[in-house]
Write a structure and sequence with these properties.
By secondary structure, the protein is α/β, with parallel strands linked by helices. The protein has helices at about 1-20, 30-40, 50-55, 70, 85-95, 120-125, 130-145, 180-195, 220-230, 300-310, 330-345, and strands spanning about 45, 100-105, 145-150, 200-205, 235-240, 255, 275-280, 315-320, 355, 365-370, 370-375, 385-390, 395-400, 405-410, 415, 425-435. About 30% of the residues lie in helices and about 20% in strands. The longest helix has 20 residues, at about 1-20. It binds alpha-D-glucopyranose (GLC).
Amino acid sequence: MKTMKRIFVLALLVVGMGKAMAGNYIPTAENLESRKQFSDCRFGIFLHWGIYSMFAQGEWYLQSGPKQYEYAKAADAFYPHRFNALSWVRAIKDAGAKYICITSRHHDGFSMWGTKQSPYNIVDATPFGRDVLKELAEACQQEGIRLHFYYSHLDWGRDDYPMGRTGHEVGKDSTKADFQHYFKFMNAQLTELLTNYGPIGGIWFDGVWDHDNDATPFDWQLEEQYALIHKLQPACLVGNNHHKAVVSGEDFQMFERDLPGDNTAGWNKSEISALPLETCETMNGIWGYKITDQNYKSTQDIIRMLVNASGRDANLLMNLGPQPNGELPALGLQRLHEVGQWMKKYGDTIYGTRGGDLKPQEWGVTTRKGNQLYVHVLNQPGTTLSFPLKCKVKAAKLFIDGTSVPFKQKNGTLTLTLPEKVEEVDYVIALTTKE
Ligand code: GLC
């Protein structure tokens, strides 16, 4: 029996080692520092902007009916004359967000910068003719905002992209599929993005799932592509929205429309890694601008999402779909401003924190920074709140005004006294503890 047990343990060890050794990626010191800075941000804004915005029906519009050659004509009318990178960045900064992730090229294949790899881009194919990513990159640098680029692995427009499970109706010539050609194209584009736009905080890949149903596994050659990114900018974090466990070469893990650990969307089944985490969500119901969707989440809901993400040690990347005229939607701007008002007061309990000592509870979450453990009460449990806590509490104060909060700590359980009725979106008690 003992021998059996030993063999079993040995087998587990071998499998475990295999896992740890899969891939050769060793992050550099700059990369590790960048991961830390990224997690410290806690709040970012996602922007889905492209010629699809003109149809005002979300970023998947090309997939829902038009032929590519008809759709592409929109480029010739794209003139977002109200675009002002600095005012976007300032509005986002005012919201308390610390980084932006913008679509450089979405599934429709249109590039939002002056790429030399294809004329189908904002500089060469639109009357607007301006490199909006360059303008945004400059504004971000000026305002101290970190910039990430979303980049689609799948492309509904290019013939060399081997068709997956989407894009069958757009009229592509599938006999011309040539992944090596397409791979070179992508890498040349990524090289531009990581050479001409200053320091880029991260590349946010999306679309690998297009080949999830292939009979033989599709080889995206991700490790080679990731290595190129790290060679060009070691501090640039690589993340991939593949809805699977992280693979070698990735620096952060993302969860689409779910907090880490939840799976309401149905595709977030992968285990939570030790890498920095990020949850992305839409502010209304869709990523790209949709004229009929005015169903924006309330400011309270957005704040609670942010708090809930922080308590799970994750960033929140909240999306807005800019309009075809270059403005951010008015309701979105209003929410940004209101979240910012809250962040001005409560930012210390969010920025630079890590998920606290407790796993998320019915009543809320905890975040920690140094010897401060922040207790975020989101659903009032009653007039007392008790939970197990190993470390010794030296003081308990209401975060917002420093009022002492009565507490008892006995046999490893902390009990805090709460008011009759908590009015705040998030009632925060700051505990000073032994770390
Ligand atoms: C999904 C959608 C895509 C969107 C992304 C953002 O992958 O297909 O349109 O950009 O989610 O999370």
